[in-house]
Amino acid sequence: MSDAAAVTRRALIVAWPGADRAVLGPMIEAGLLPNLSLLVDRGVSGALVPVPPLVPIASWGCMITGCWAHHHGLLHEKAIGPQGEVEWASLASLRVPAIWETVRAAGASASQIGWESESPDASGADSAEVAAALRAMVVDPDEARSLQPEWMRRLREAVADSLRSARDAIEALPSHALVAVRFRGLGVLARDFARFDPPAPGWVVPERARLFAQVFRQAWRQHDELLGALVAAAGSDCVLMLASESGLDLAALRAAPDAEHGRSVRPGFLLMAGPGIRGDALMHGATVPATCATLLAAMGLPTDHCDVGPVAGVMTEAAPSSSMRGQARPPSDVLTGLSADLSSPEVRGVMQDRARNLARSWMLQGAWRQAMLALEEAGGELDAEHLELRVRCRLAQRQIPEARREIDQWHALAPRPSARLDSLEASVRLLEDRPEGAHQRIREAIARHGESAELLVDLAEVLLRLKREPEATSACLRAIELDVGTQSAHAMLTRCHHEAARFNDAAEAARSALALRFMDPEMHFLRGTALAAAGRPHEALESLFEAVRQRPDFPAAYRRLAAVHLRQLGNHGAAEGFMEAARQAEVRLRERSVRAQ
Asked: Which residues of the chain have pLDDT under 70?
């Protein structure tokens, strides 16, 4: 690593598509994944939550750049080519640097393997190794080749890609500061062959179920062996990150092709181990974009260009901070400059999907006007999905009459109310200061659709408005019990604890919410306020500083910083400085409001 003067540690990224703690956990407990089990014991692991748009290539883009999709530009699995043709999207089209480019820019060497396309590549694999792996996976490879040639071709390509990728990574490790290897074949093995895992569903052809019964579990065992070889080659001075873009919805993967089964996007898996990594830090996990900054910080490199900072508390030393992160960037041009043939239904569909996904990404950052502009760009006929996005933007901007009109349009399209529509109607009633009406609507929705984490969070918000904090807290806890990865449930629980003056509990709930979505200045502010009230001023300052880093014009956060310095630390000079910063922020907000009018 002689050329890596700016890098303090070497790093290895292992990307396992579809890795999911719900799948891996039982296999670890059964002793089937010894190398992963050892790393889990030595390091820190937890859920890795994808962020909108929930498209695999967008999540991979977030992971390797640390940026939201509206900045890195990959919004859909398909793209519009230079001549206006529809083609598969590629990570080569990223509009911001990938982590290996950042490492090279720092003067160090980096190698990326398995990221050039989304499909497995069987070329260059050792045929004897591939044959041995297939014998361990398939009951009778010769019979399978004869009776199921297409399935065996897919299986062989996936296995060959993984074996070659592991070999290339092991060869690259001694001479590079960063090696990033993605096992594309594992995604095929996990998702395409999950249906054959015993007991196979009744709709699966019995012959295939018999021949491929071992593939799903053996695929994870094979990749555990490859992981052990990679860790051994990396050495003890290397930081390891193992991550997946999302988990596996096994119910959907094993459902009959003609069955009506909506596919959900489950949290993926994040593991970090090695020098400088603290154990037991990811109680509820992190968001996908945070992985890039976390690994760069572990390598000793700056993270200013990342939209999302390092996961708090993972490293034993403080991560480099940035005063620039979270500040506004110019609007993305990812939908402009395309010479697309809009008369083609396929091109129109891709353009509309990309525009909607762009809106979802902006919405995640609270950029409601940009989101509305993207929805206008999407064009096409209004459907329930499009109207839902528009209503959410309207409500965030308190445009109640416009939201009402679009809800009426939604009713006309779908006479039978959905849980999402009921939820949004309750939100309108809250904004109209009609909490009793909102409470009735949410109760009706739960009776109609059943309990869900999202509806329970809505119920908790209404109950809190009605000054029924104990019931609101219970609703939050039930939501977390149903789905621990629901960020809004942890955020609402924070508010409940804060309302009841349980400030230490509020700070802990806020930490869980921020682990799932770090880019949330309001939650950093609420955590800082709770820590200050709990008599923990230095921790409070850290959270409040992050709030103003993410939102520079945040008068309440500056005033809280001033209060902590004045009342708890006795620093009058710092308090005066933060009060002046609050006044300047208020001036900027007023000027911005006047310009907007």
From this structure: 1-5, 258-263, 279-285, 312-343, 380-381, 595-597
**Quick check: 66 and 306 in contact, CB under 8 A?**
yes
Contact, 12 vs 240, CB < 8 A?
A: yes
Q: Tell me which DSSP letter residue 565 carries.
A: I
For residue 410, the Cα-to-chain-centroid distance in whole angstroms is 29
**What is the tens place of the pLDDT at every residue in 103-159?**
999 999 999 999 988 888 888 888 889 899 999 998 888 888 888 889 999 999 999
Span 18-36, pLDDT tens digits:
998 889 999 999 999 999 9
Backbone phi, then psi, for 182, in 5-degree steps?
A: -115, 125
In which order are the strands placed within the sheet that holds 10-15?
110-113, 178-182, 10-15, 238-243, 268-273, 44-49, 286-287
Residue 322: predicted pLDDT: 46
pLDDT value of residue 280:
61
Place of tokens 């956060």: 557
Concatenating the DSSP letter of every residue in 230-278 gives: HHHHH-TTEEEEEE-S----HHHHTS-TTS--PPP---EEEEEESTTBP
- With contact defined as beta carbons under 8 Å apart, do 245 and 288 qualify? yes
Residue 245: Cβ-neighbour burial (10 angstroms; 0-12, 13-18, 19+): buried
The region, left, alpha or beta by phi > 0 then psi within -120 to 50, assigned to residue 344 is: beta
**At 315, phi and psi to the nearest 5?**
-95, 150
* CA–CA distance, 133 with 222 (Å, rounded to integer): 8
C-alpha distances in Å from residue 379, one per residue of 81, 176, 366, 382, 579: 20, 47, 22, 8, 46
Which residue in 188, 212, 213 sits closest to 199, CA to CA? 213
Quote the pLDDT of residue 4.
Answer: 45
526 burial type by CB count under 10 A (0-12 exposed, 13-18 middle, 19+ buried): buried
**What tokens appear for 376 in the block?**
């206008």
* Of 510, 504, 514, 448, nearest in space to 476 by CA: 510
- State the Cα–Cα distance between residues 162 and 181, nearest whole angstrom: 10
Cβ atoms of 179 and 12 closer than 8 Å: yes
Is 16:238 a contact under the CB 8 Å cutoff?
Answer: no
3-state helix, strand, coil in the chain (%, to 5): 60, 5, 35
Reported as type and span, the H/E element at residue 42 is helix 34-42
First CA to last CA across the chain, in angstroms?
A: 56
List of residues 6+ apart from 155 with CB closer than 8 A: 134, 137, 138, 189, 193, 212, 215
- Token look-up 């490790």 returns 173
Return the structure tokens found at 504.
Answer: 């230490």
Cis peptide before 53 (omega within 30 of 0): yes
H or E segment to which residue 292 belongs: helix 290-298
Left (φ > 0), alpha (ψ -120 to 50) or beta: where does 43 sit? beta
